[in-house]
Amino acid sequence: MLKVICYGVVLSSVILLSGCGGDESAANTVGNTQVVAKVNGEEVTVHQLNQLLSRVRVPEGGVSQEEVEQKVLDSLIEKTLVLQAAKKVKLDREPAVLSALEEAKNKVLIDRYVQRTLESVAKPTDEKIQQFYDNFPELFADRKMYVFTKLAISADADRVNQIIEQVKQGQSIEQIVALLKQQAIKYKRMSEAKGEGKIANPILHFLSALQAGDIGYLKMTDGLLVVELHKVLDQSVDLETAKNAIARQLLLEERKKASKKLVDSLKETAEIEYVGKFAPKP
Question: What burial class does residue 114 get, using C-beta atoms within 10 Å of its C-beta: 0-12 exposed, 13-18 middle, 19+ buried?
Fold first, then answer.
């Protein structure tokens, strides 16, 4: 069934921390010996090794802890060799390197200071978690997944209304595609299945007004978006299942607020003077 639903929303038709991810359980100490290797006489300590092990995700099955420790130690030895070679040609005295080292040291100090401050931020209470769960039913209790096909049609503003009339003539995406091909109108076809948390709010509002089998369109800044909704799947989540995710989200928000408050308080007690071209204009 064709249901013409138009939203006058100005959007674009294009709608859509890497690392080891350390596991603390992998941070096993390596014996009691403080020195685990010597590289050209330079000692590699158990502390250095354990620091690297704490950032390594140990694969399940087939690999022993001893094998992981040996590979990490070999990697540490290789890095030590390269570092020694860099120092031998006095790279550590180059101005650019010294500047980068100073910047890295400052970053570590800043991060640690902020981290120490944020340790005092309390974990969210059960009451706050419940309130967040109730305030966003579309993310939890009433969460849905939309399965749909969309056509992102490229056209200037003058031609959009003409295309809309052609869209109204189609009873399915296939018919609309055939009409577009007849007139050599450029489009991009995509099939998607997305939960409500993965869809931009204007598009989500548009989709929620459709029923399975409906076709609707949405005016964009650079053309037209035509959508045929195939299914709406229930993906509701109860409070107990969502509790940990909500707690992490609320704690992150509180830490952001605390971080900003910390910087603001430092600014209030500091003497800051802009000079040169940044000095206030008379």
Answer: middle
